[in-house]
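[job 0412] stage=complex_fold ligand=molybdenum atom status=START
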Amino acid sequence: MGKFVYSLCGMCAVRCPVRVEVEGGRVRWIEGNPHVGGMEGSLCAKGSAAISFEYDSERVQTPLIRAGARGSGKWRKASWDEALDYIADKLKAVQARYGKKAVALTDRSGLFTDLTKSFIKALGSPNYFDHDDSCAKNVNMAVQSLFGYGRGETGYDYANAKHIVLVGRNIFEALNVKEVNNVLNGMEKGAKLTYVDVRATTTAAKADNFYRIRPGADYAFLLGLTHEIIEKGYYDAEFVARNCSGFDELKEFIQPYTPEWAEKECEISAANIRDLAAQLHEAAPKVIFHGGWMLARYYDSFYVSRMLYLLNALLGSVEIKGGFTIAKGPGDCGRKGLQSLGKNIPEPEDKIVDAAMPGKSMGTGHIVNCYKAMKTGEPYPIRALICYRYDVMTSLPDPEGQKKYLDNLDLLVSIDVNYSETAWYADVILPEATYLERSNIICTQKGLKPQFAIRRQAVEPLYDSKPGWEIFTLLAEKMGVGQYFPYKSIEDIWRVQLEGTGVSIEDFDAKGVVGLSKDAVFQERDKLKFKTPSGKIEFVSQNLTKNNFPSLKPYVSPQKPAPGHFRLVFGRSPAQAHAQSQNNAYLNEILPTNTLWINDKEAVKMGVAHGDKVKITAPDGSYSGVIAANVTPFIHPEAVFMLHGFGSAIPLKTRSFGKGLSDNRFETGLVEAIDPVGGGVAYLECFVKVEKA
Ligand SMILES: Nc1nc2c(c(=O)[nH]1)N[C@H]1C(S)=C(S)[C@@H](COP(=O)(O)OP(=O)(O)OC[C@H]3O[C@@H](n4cnc5c(=O)[nH]c(N)nc54)[C@H](O)[C@@H]3O)O[C@H]1N2
Ligand SMILES: Nc1nc2c(c(=O)[nH]1)N[C@H]1C(S)=C(S)[C@@H](COP(=O)(O)OP(=O)(O)OC[C@H]3O[C@@H](n4cnc5c(=O)[nH]c(N)nc54)[C@H](O)[C@@H]3O)O[C@H]1N2
Ligand code: SF4
Ligand SMILES: [Mo]
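[job 0412] stage=complex_fold status=DONE, emitting structure tokens
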């Protein structure tokens, strides 16, 4: 047996707690951290494939500086010193000419952002953007408008639920190991599962009720369901009276939206809607409506998500065992939180770029506004972009269209472990050490039982890479702001973070996590307080009203595709993470390419049989591609579906290069398409032409 190192998996952004076994300096085995509830040894396919990624020569091995035109794939190797000097010189020139604010950084939100936020703050720029506009921003804004808490400050107690409703939340494929285990535990104890999707997924196969819905019509379904719950008096009147504001307005608003009306829009029968309402009534308050995740990518997704959260409140399933919960942090357990690395760094003088944009959506930090500023120079120019853990060119729509924005940059840097599409288009690539080769800053995992968690280096870096903390420390030094990053080792950082918390670095040795509460922490039921302006759950939100957005928006029917056209829907496979793992030797073997799901009756009309090649053309005709058809009755006739992340254009990734098609390339003209209220990217407002190839 080798030695055990506790870490947080880095093969997708969920960052599950893991235990790594190391023998003779090599990783021998990785498993879910046995000391963490919900993990208990389990790991997903991608997590296990970390081993093949670690020993893969097709990852970035050394700093690279562009030696040809952007995207030409011509690189020269550079030392770290040379690459960092190159970046610092360009950043200084940009800041001298356009101001400190002209440098922006994009990041993956989640557990480790204190480092990156502190870094960009040290450079004097307010322009920090996380990935969430391309993910769950609408959901985040929706839950805030009702409860005042962000998405990450809430959770679900699946293991104790009696009925779990997932609308476009494909929980068994777009997975998070703990969540999957908790849902399965709940189901073993008798919880029912209702699933709504435009296609039948693995989650549909495990569900008690599966409803196939017309693409983009979820709001109609939820309005019909709410109508039935209110009309039949299935809601928790006492909970609503005590904790919610705006119920009278909701009652009035919902009047026209009967289940019969909803059926015509969403194609889920009125009988099914009524039956579901009755089932939920029976299970309440131990009912969970998941607020949606990537479902949130239509023009009205903010309101879909808002209605999902609102239903939790109507049924009284808030902050209760088996329901929707508020995640607790150190403060809720009478403990002190981690100290921020940015605590002593002065706030930038300027406002973030989207603060000054007219007609903006809720919140700030929307990447689309950063893009607009790159292109127009308004309200001020953004001329340098550092992409860290966020591959904008595959995660935002239309990579060719994006070049019109990115080409205005004087500097594009990618810090990655992979040759991502953004890295390939960058001026400099800095290779970060893999998660197995590095330690990260300590993080807080909020929840009913909050904890601090650590990612510790398991093995020495195989190539000339560096951990993120060191990259940002060295760059800060070269930018002349080294006083804010005085760290010589990760332990220096950990000590600053842990100051005053009563926790020491050694406390992580035994389990990799330090629990902050033995028992689940709930607010007292009769003294619930939320972070909204009124302290109540606001069915009519003061913040929305202040920003001239309605709280209860009348329904608008989604667009129907023209003949021969389909709405392009995408999603996840349990064996791949976005576009980052298709070249992984193990995962590529499991799933080397994607196909196009198409409804069997539609296929017959086009003379397409299962396995035939079909040609897909982007909305503006500028791009097309050929792929095999997966002809199936299990998808709505208005939609076609492909897995996200395939169709790599990077020749150095020999296993995934040119395999399958990339959904993003078909999303032409959508770079600035967003949900007007939540600000999330409206990827699914994309209609492609499909014909037999
Ligand atoms: N068309 C379409 N677009 C989508 C989606 C879709 O399904 N279809 N999905 C959307 C969603 S939900 C999201 S969250 C985004 C995801 O978009 P991203 O956040 O861009 O995707 P990730 O796969 O998380 O990884 C981002 C980059 O981080 C790199 N990376 C991985 N590990 C490390 C590491 O340890 N260090 C460093 N420095 N880099 C690392 C990866 O190689 C990758 O290039 O895409 C969105 N865009
Ligand atoms: N294996 C794996 N797991 C992951 C990830 C990964 O890359 N790989 N990524 C993680 C991330 S960042 C995210 S955001 C989550 C995403 O988690 P999810 O949102 O659950 O996953 P997706 O597969 O993006 O989309 C879910 C489903 O929405 C359906 N859908 C499309 N249009 C509609 C509609 O109009 N109505 C309804 N009801 N359904 C519709 C699609 O058919 C798809 O099956 O997954 C996370 N987990
Ligand atoms: S879901 Fe899988 S890949 Fe993602 S962090 Fe957890 S184990 Fe790793
Ligand atoms: Mo996401």
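The chain has a mean pLDDT of 97.
[job 0412] exit 0
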